[in-house]
Amino acid sequence: MNAVNAPEPLPSAEALLRATPPHALVATARRLLAERMGAQEVTLLLADYGLTVLQPVTHLPHTDAPVPCHEGPAGSAFVTQKPVVEVLDEPSGHLVHLPITVRGDRLGILSVRLPARTVAPDTVLQLGDFATALGHEVTTAGRDTDLYLQARRTRRLTLAAEMQWQLLPGRGCARREYIIGAHLEPAYAIGGDNFDWSTSADHLTLTVTDGMGQGIDASLLTNLTVSALRNARRAGIGLADQAALADQAVFAQYGGKAYASTLLLHFDLDTGTVHAVDAGSPQLFRQRGGHTERIELDAQLPLGMFEETLYEEQTFHVEPGDRLIAVSSGVHGTRSAAGDLFGERVLRQVLGATRSAEPHEAARAVVAGLIEHYGSRELLSDAAVVCLDWNGRR
User: Between vectors from CA 373 to CA 370 and to CA 376, what angle results, nearest 5°?
Assistant: First the structure.
């Protein structure tokens, strides 16, 4: 009797996406979802730098109209980070909007139009897994093609902003122990503000940096500062020594004529103990049990102001349920057209009103409140906000 050969299993969607050229991911996604799930239309939308719209990914200049980041079915899926099924008129079927998020960094939305009879909970779950796989490939492909970076912008970035966005680790990061959401403005002209983080098995290091000046001068200073901090961190030395080595690097380059204010935080994921170095102007707030307080740290000299400055660490503690918010001087020091300082009082009001929001939305809301207070979306000073929800290891 002749043996019957079993059919070769179909390659996984993840494997096929990995094998796709970087620029062709959307086309491959359309083909796979059409063949395997009967998809009639597939659109990848990426959030723009200012988090105002979701931009369809197409080959420039043939770009479809963007949709709002915080309105409509696609915007709702982006904000809530949950799939949204939009019921269309027959025979159009249903449009499923799926959040694309990579390790806590919200990239955008995958919108898939399916025949109405095929939309079931299992289908939505499968589409969610596909969207996550596509997000990972888009993140990797960004190293090799400009397509996805171009799709994120509604207008041209300044050169300083281009440098700053390339320096960032992302706009969010999530693990079981914590969730981080961050935001920068003016998104298309940012110069000196930066946030950075690195996680290991048992620790998280988080920094917020504000390089003095504007434009290219501020961006070059911040790039040097952040690179020096990363270099020291990756050498495995303590937080105070990281600050000292970065201080030496900046002073060696600028001789005290330019400096960077930096807040360095190092979290122990087991205990919630936080080691901190406050080297300048970023401020830190903690929300716990309905109360908002500023964490007062010993103000030490900004990095690069004087030669061979020595820095000291302080410690404080975070508990499960705590929220930390770090803001640069462009937030707490901005004045309105009438000369009113945004200040701690208004900041506390915004933080209180956004306590139930996810960290990404809370950070964005602080900047939105700042823009409303200032009276113009084009802020004169850079503004950085980092929001961290602490879960700890329970």
Answer: 85
Bridge partner list, 285 = 294, 325
Which residues on neighbouring strands pair with residue 179, listed in sequence order?
174, 389
Q: What's the pTM? A: 0.91
CB distance 192 to 214 below 8 Å = yes
Q: Where are the alpha helices (DSSP H) in the chain?
A: 13-18, 25-37, 72-80, 121-141, 147-151, 159-167, 215-234, 239-254, 329-332, 343-353, 359-374
pLDDT band for 373, please (50, 70, 90 cuts): low
pLDDT surpassing 70 at residue 2: no
Rounded to 5 degrees, φ, ψ at 103 are: 50, 45
How many Å apart are CA 32 and CA 68, to the nearest integer?
A: 27
Backbone angles phi, psi at 224, to 5 degrees: -65, -45
Query: Per-residue pLDDT tens for 349-366?
Result: 888 888 999 999 999 998
Q: Does residue 246 contact residue 225 with C-beta atoms inside 8 Å?
A: yes
CA gap 265, 167 in Å, rounded: 19
